[in-house]
UniProtKB/TrEMBL annotation:
One Pfam match: Glyco_trans_1_4
Superkingdom classification of source: Bacteria
Comp. bias regions, Basic and acidic residues: 385-400
Name of the protein: Glycosyl transferase (Modular protein)
Molecular function GO labels: glycosyltransferase activity
Annotated segments matching region Disordered: 330-406
PANTHER family the UniProt entry points to: BLL5144 PROTEIN, GLYCOSYLTRANSFERASE
Natural source organism: Frankia canadensis
Domain called Glycosyltransferase subfamily 4-like N-terminal: residue spans: 77-183
Annotated InterPro entries: Glyco_trans_4-like_N (IPR028098)
Keywords: Glycosyltransferase, Transferase
Amino acid sequence: MASAGVDRKVSRVPLRYGFLSTYPPTQCGLATFTAALREQLTDCAPGASSGVVRLLDAPAGPSPPRAAPTGVVGDLVAGTPGGPQRAARLLNRFDVAVVQHEYGIYGGRDGDEVLEVLRHLDVPLIVVLHTVLVHPTPHQRHVLEAVAAASDAVVVMTETARARLAAGYEVDPRLVVVIPHGAADNRRATPARSSRPTVLTWGLIGPGKGIEWGIAAMAALTDLDPTPRYLVAGQTHPKVLAREGEAYRDSLVAQARRLGVAGSVSFDGRYRDAASLGALVRAADVVLLPYDSRDQVTSGVLIEAVAALRPIVATRFPHAVELLGDGTGLLVPHGDAPGDRGRDTQHRHRRQQDPGVGPGRRRTRPRPAVARGRPPLPAARRRAGHPDRTQADPGEKRTEQAGGGDPMIADVSFAHLFRLSDDIGLFEHALGAVPRREHGYCVDDVARGMVVLAREPDPPFELVRLLKRYLAFVVAAQSPDGAMRNRRDTAGRWRDQPGLGDWWGRALWGLGTVAARAPTLRARDTALGRFRASARRRSRWPRAMTFAALGAGEVLLVYPDHQPARDLLAAAVTAIGPPGVDPAWPWPEPALRYANAAVPEALILAGICLPDEAVLASGLRLLAWLLDLETRGGRLSPTPVGGRRPGEDGEPGFDQQPIEAATLADACARAYDLTGQTRWLTGLERAQAWFLGDNDSVVPLLDTLTGGCCDGLEPHGRNINQGAESTLALLSTAQHARRLLAAP
């Protein structure tokens, strides 16, 4: 009986494994993972065999074709007619199919070409999920659920991934198995250390890796003796290289030079085999994983660092939280240059290596400090959007959100904003995610950047420094009579004459916000003085006066006796004009144009600060009308770039721009802070969801890889360029959502 039992068990072991995945020589983590998994599975049972159907973006090799790598039985080239069916026929020759799933490796929308492969499989299917998004688009959710429904087993590598599947997807939990990511044992003898401690980041390089934060951290560690060395090892990701060339790597080199740490930051772009990479990791004093992503549930680099017993500093991406949260490593917030944490890890590790080694000797140059002194604000002004950072108002209570649940909150970072910025200002345009330097800078966008940075609570040093740079740009644009230039080239030359157009209004908005909210006293004082110099001017353009009113309102919420701001705000109310008498079109203009919700927000601020109850009521009424007009089927459908006139309320209009959603979020947040009515939270939720894919084209504008925002929503997709205006619109909306919509 025992013998018969053993025979039956062996007969059920699948001896032929068919893999569907990227595969070496393709350079990506998934290809490396599959090669290692294939080796282990075929080695664990005598006589086992395997083959790989390799995923490619384009046909491999020139004509005549090169021989396929060992073990590759065929290729699935994205978008090839009949390709999925041929791939399925190849996999059906094996006893079991092992399919790696990542949205970006398959053809079709969100990689939905994989579904056609799975429909034609006749053998048992094991799917390994490498990404489980917290906030997928509806189509991304559909793809993953369909993949899971076709599977006999679903493998994830972390408990976080399993929990996300259970909470956010219709997947049979009985199919889901957690098998932790493995790595080769790299616990060999530690090589001799160099005189300078080495901080190491490695892997394929591209936007979203957060290397900007590592370089910024080096600038915060220059007072150590010896100064640490930051080594970034790895080639540029092939897809990034094809799309953008070496623009990202070049921007990192430029950042190191700009921060004065070029001698402490080095880049090794060589390809390393497993032995060479293992030696490199063992030689590191600290491994730094500063990833921007908050969705990453699996990281092979993290596992390899743990396997080498290296001290690790990582952002709080899910796999790091799960693996390092017990104190195995140090976790830091996203968007934080972890200078002190890297210093602590480095010293702790060195004491473990040599008890006689203490902390590095400090030089006498002091570390930068941020002054945060500010007079307390009255409760009414806190409710108008200026929280008192020194104490809470016990009389204020947060109104319950409609629906009772937490809405989607975008996981965004400032990484792309840093990518678009240099030591002069903020580049206006981008080609994809690469700044278009030839187009230069404009006050319009730099002023928007000032608003976003000044509103950020407890900003890290790098954001404070960026705010100072933007403020200096606007100060340089101001003429003695209070007018503003707008356009500047990369040589620092102004390309236009001072004027009072929209850029003047936005400059006043930025100056007023910095004067009221900036984290340093010097920035607040500088901005307030410059605001006063321009506030005496008046523009003949109502929209310019609207933007200026937003800055005047910010000043008055903190400095209620500031007469130039009061006079400017009153003049803006006159320039905007009274609401229309037609209840179907109460808008004070003959057509909706752009940044429309700034108009009711300006009136709301005027009603609060002047004060004027009638103006306040007009602002709230116009905002309610605009929100209703721009809501279609429960989702936001903003006014298109060409505007909207009375009677034009049929099909959705295109192209839709992020600035429309952002100004609506601004106004709804302002109205909620004043009234506590949940209808305004609903408007903010719709604006936030618009960026994440709940829009007329069902396409997300947020690029989770870069942290940027696409420039527009088109009828069948999105404009993939990620310029300053759109990225700031995303960041601004996310700030409001984080403050008002996140679970308490």
